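User: Please go through the entry that follows and flag anything odd:
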Amino acid sequence: MSIEWTEQTGVTLLVILGCALAASCARLPPAPSYGIIQAPSPSFDERLPNYVIIHQTSDRSAEEALATLTNPERKVSSHYLIGRDGTIYQLVAENKRAWHAGVSYWGGDTDVNSASIGIELDNDGQEPFAEDEIGRLLDLLRGLKERYRIPRANFLGHGDVAPGRKVDPSSRFPWDRLALAGFGLWCHRPLAEVRAFDDVKLGLQLLGYDVADLTAALMAFRRHFLGSDSAAAPDDQDRDMLNCLVRQRAS
């Protein structure tokens, strides 16, 4: 069945997608414990996972990150931390609400902590992500997707849900590799020339971004999907990529 893509079509999709992706998932068996070091953090509440939010620690080592994430005075945590060497630490149980996203927004959801699994990656923000680390991340994501039936479009970065406030993971993060494995959206060039809309703000909103600060949202989008930290005015590359991603999200 073909669909005539117009800006009105896009607005309708925003409503439909928001409802579909916010649906609760049935509880499934607990996470496997093999090969994971338990490092309990006291900072958590109850929550239901429907998103995965990926972070980078911006520390020099996993040990530094652990000291922060398990310090009750810092009031910050994540469900998992993955070291550069591929070691996985579980800090908060998956059925608990970790404090990792902070003030955040995605597709109308303003309490991302209550609906997400937070994963910290041992990375200083300037270096490439280690191969062992990414390999173990993919293993972990497979289990999370299976256990909670998390929609493909709901594998996101901290910078996506907190544009302007957070910029992690960096533009070096291999989102294309994750998408190839089924975690997140991705469009390969060359992109289709037919556009449903030209309004970049609308496209960002349809994808899920908070567009209150349009420049921040655009920069977060570029960091994730174009591997760029540019703050330049919107251009046709942005428009074409947004059109492709919105179509993919709706399929």
About this structure: Residues 1-28 have pLDDT under 50 and may be disordered. The domain at 7-250 is CATH 3.40.80.10 (Lysozyme-like). The two ends are 11 Å apart (CA to CA).
